[in-house]
Amino acid sequence: MWKILIIDDDFQVLEGMKKSIPWEAIDAQLVGEASDGAEGLEMVKRTHPDIVITDIYMPVMNGLEMIEKLREDQFPGELIILSGYADFQFARQALRLQVSDYLSKPVTIEELSSVLSKVIKELEIKEMKKVEQEEIRNKLMMVEPFVQKEWLKSVITGTFDKSKASQSFQLSEQTQWLYRSHLVMGIELMSTVRTANLSLIDWNLFRFALANIIREILAEDWPESDFVELHSHHAAIMFHILPATEREEAKKTIRSIGKRIADCVLTYLQLSIRLGLGQEKRDWQEISDSTEEAFLDLLQQTIIPAQGEQSVIPSGNDVSMRPIKFYQQLAEAIVYAKEETAKQIVDAYIQQLQSVQTVNPPYLQYLCTELWTIFAYSLYSVGTVLDELFPDMVLQQEIVQIKTPEQLKQWLHRKIHLIASSRHWNENSKHKEAVEFMIQYAHDHYAQEISLEDMSKQLYLSRNYLNQIFKKATGETFTNYLIRVRMKKAHALLAEGKYLIYEISEKVGYKNVPYFSSIFKKYNGINPSEVGKSGT
Hints:
single chain, four-stranded antiparallel beta sheet, Alpha-Beta Plaits, 4 domains, alpha/beta, cytoplasm
């Protein structure tokens, strides 16, 4: 409800105004009255009105002097001058003071109602913008860590848009990225007999514990660093190195940090990790090169060619094959069931493999194991269990049959097709259950704060994926659907005539009444105060 203060030294004018203003129709109330500008200033401080209607000529302090002081005090409300002096000088001064309107006495009820309706509409727009900006700020505060995390992952894997590189520093301090060099440590969480039969949930708990250990050590030993979780059992650390740092000393320290991390993980989690180091890069856009070098260094420790065979694992200086970037791109395509995109990514990587003269079968089989693990984690994030799609499959028996890049390509194509088609086959039933749950949740909890984050925790599906399937099923976003539910309920409560507008606003989940009124009018075409008066 909008608060109006009237200031005039003419008692009859005050009484006439109080009777003439259609308070209920414009959803407003009188919060006070004053007979001069000085008293009016005190009344404004005490009542915080949204609209002040004031005369110009008054004792003690005139209306224009009072308005100047209000402007100096950053008064946020609207000001209407109602004066018996239709003087151009006064009108010009009023415009300079940014008053909403200037009316000359005597004023008709129609003129007064029209001006007040216009001013209230302006207030609604301002209030709505203010609330929307606050909501945007709140959402950005919630989203910023997620955006930062995804941006770091794109930098470390090389999947960021290089054409927009100059815009990237809105997320991070330029000094850290432009004026320091960077080195990546690759981390692989090893699968052991102890962890072989762990569920994905338990394995994720180990990953969470691993991340906590690493972050604590980095905070103590190298704060200027970023820890990034990659796909499944892989992670990486970006070490940012100051220009004045002695290079060999820096590498020695980084290796000691890696050893400390490995020792702590073994001591506290009874798990083993394997570490690899990339080369130092001066340009932040080359960080992904260091990442590939780190994981290729790690591969050198993993795959030893048979006697007499030539290794196909690239050296630290040759990162053209980029397995980490390949993993990241393929995982994203699998998550969103983009079968053709996934196959194209596979084809491009296999073509790179075929460019190598001798292809070592252990490397191809290692790739199969890695990719299968990545598929399992990626699909689990959207509610699909890979083992359930392939209940009779004996993975190791299939992997040992793969000896050439072409065999690897055909094997991946078949698996991708089966994953995509299986997900599509059970998509309707799974999606239907999720969407029905979300719809019912909106109807049961519309009076509370609800977000897609709440839904994702309830359904164990990612927020983006939930929004995607809800929009596909209903034709609108979950947020818009929730607003429609709230507006229908508000309309029904208003029609009953038992509650005040601010009570209904709270009952349908809105603490800000002007914002609720604006949303209501947008969806219903009328103000809340008009419901029931025109048969609606």
